[in-house]
Design brief:
Strands 1, 4, 5, 6, 7, 8, 9 and 10 form an 8-stranded mixed beta sheet that branches. Strands 2-3 form a two-stranded antiparallel sheet. The chain contains 7 helices and 10 strands. α1 packs antiparallel against α2. It has a single domain, classed as Rossmann fold (3-Layer(aba) Sandwich), CATH 3.40.50.2020. The protein is α/β, with parallel strands linked by helices and about 270 residues long.
């Protein structure tokens, strides 16, 4: 039976906005996800809606990352119709299920998002090649409330990452310190060279992008929304990144504006 050409080399490009941050930054464009994200950040939204909304958005983010980053292969897969039609076989591209994957739990805000990604990967990929690591990290602040560094209090890394796709699901990309520290750890302390490093966020800032694109140029960044709400009107009228050095999304305590509040606290109902 002749192959159907439409399935042999699928064109894949995430639905994203134009920007000036570079090819490794993917600002996704989904009215549905932006609607859910707005609801997540509303002061009257509480648990259990918080976890449900985060789960929906990270499921969508995982779909975009899989379609864009994960390797594909051509496969022949029988369908139930083959019993009556010998030609009833799907032959075309699928995601290669034999690629190692690691979802990194950046505790505490990233714990539930990492679980969502890990769970979806276990359905799609060979479960024997999927694992979840745990990295206990928090921002350090000085007496003025400024982020002064990152504190790593422990980790549970389940093996090497050679040829693996390593995912960092972390809802808020504010200063970039956490992601940079995590990337450095996997590059320097974990055996093997990963196939790809991917950061997955609900919201990021221009300040975050400046830090991570300089420190981790190989990192692929996916985000539902870029927040630069403290920028001047001239900047806000132009596409993201055109006046990158003038863009501002962090307040004096380095929280995101407009943002969604402290997601680590809200997700865990823990404020200390």
């Amino acid at each position: 039976m002749a192959q159907d050409s439409q399935h042999q080399n699928l064109p894949v490009k995430p639905s994203g906005m134009n920007h000036h941050y570079g090819d490794n930054v993917h600002l996704l464009s989904s009215p549905l996800m932006l609607s859910l994200l707005a609801k997540l950040g509303h002061p009257k939204t509480q648990q259990p809606q918080i976890n449900e909304l985060v789960g929906m958005m990270y499921s969508y983010l995982m779909d975009q990352v899989i379609d864009t980053v994960f390797p594909k292969k051509v496969a022949r897969v029988d369908t139930r119709m083959r019993e009556s039609h010998p030609e009833a076989v799907y032959e075309g591209q699928i995601v290669d299920p034999q690629v190692p994957c690691v979802a990194v739990d950046l505790a505490r805000a990233g714990t539930y998002p990492s679980h969502v990604c890990y769970n979806k990967l276990n359905y799609l990929m060979n479960p024997e090649l999927v694992r979840q690591d745990h990295f206990y990290v928090a921002r350090l602040t000085d007496e003025k409330g400024q982020v002064s560094g990152v504190n790593v209090s422990g980790s549970k890394i389940g093996g090497g990452v050679d040829e693996a796709i390593v995912l960092f699901p972390d809802p808020m990309g504010a200063t970039g310190g956490t992601i940079v520290r995590a990337c450095e750890h996997y590059r320097r302390e974990v055996e093997g060279k990963p196939r790809a490093l991917v950061a997955m966020h609900l919201i990021i800032t221009p300040e975050y992008l400046r830090k991570v694109t300089q420190a981790c140029p190989e990192l692929q960044v996916f985000a539902l929304r870029l927040d630069r709400g403290l920028s001047a009107e001239k900047v806000l009228r132009e596409p993201p990144g055109k006046f990158w050095t003038e863009e501002k999304g962090l307040n004096q305590h380095q929280y995101i504006v407009p943002g969604a509040g402290g997601l680590g606290e809200i997700l865990n109902n823990s404020y200390c």
